[in-house]
Amino acid sequence: MPRKAVWLTSHLARTHQTAQAIFAAGNFETAPQLQQNKDLAEQHLGDWQGLDRRTFLMNRSQEPDSFWYATADERAPNGESFVDLVQRVGAAIARVTKECKGGDIVAVAHGGTIRAAIAIALGLPPRGGFAFMIDNCSLTRLDHYQGPQRSGWRVAMINHRP
Known about the structure:
Elements: E1 6-9, H1 13-25, E2 34-36, H2 53-58, H3 82-99, E3 105-108, H4 111-122, E4 139-146, E5 151-160
Parallel strand pairs: 1-2, 1-3
Antiparallel strand pairs: 4-5
Helix pairs in contact: 3-4
């Protein structure tokens, strides 16, 4: 892990706990400061939160390309859609990339957030993010390049297990 990176987490405790475990395993002299960014949180499932996943999915028609709770544009009651998540994460990525221009960023994030970031990096429609499985405690590396006229992304790794 880069030693001089800006470290980001969502506002949810599990990302803070994971970051602390990374610090402990990485033998950092001092733990990097964590910056919480609520825009990196997992998709807000609203009224679907806490429901039994198997029962929930059995009572819904599944689209062949969804691999998720719903199609990308279906908004959970009192929650958000995956399209909403991609827009939220995209705005956060653009903001943080600009603020940290030329520096390393380590984001300890959630599976849906990572799927959204991959879809953005590859220029996929939001539903394209559903094609990726994100393993717990794995590394995904996205490299941003800024040229004089254009910028772009390279996907260096997904689900890497150090």
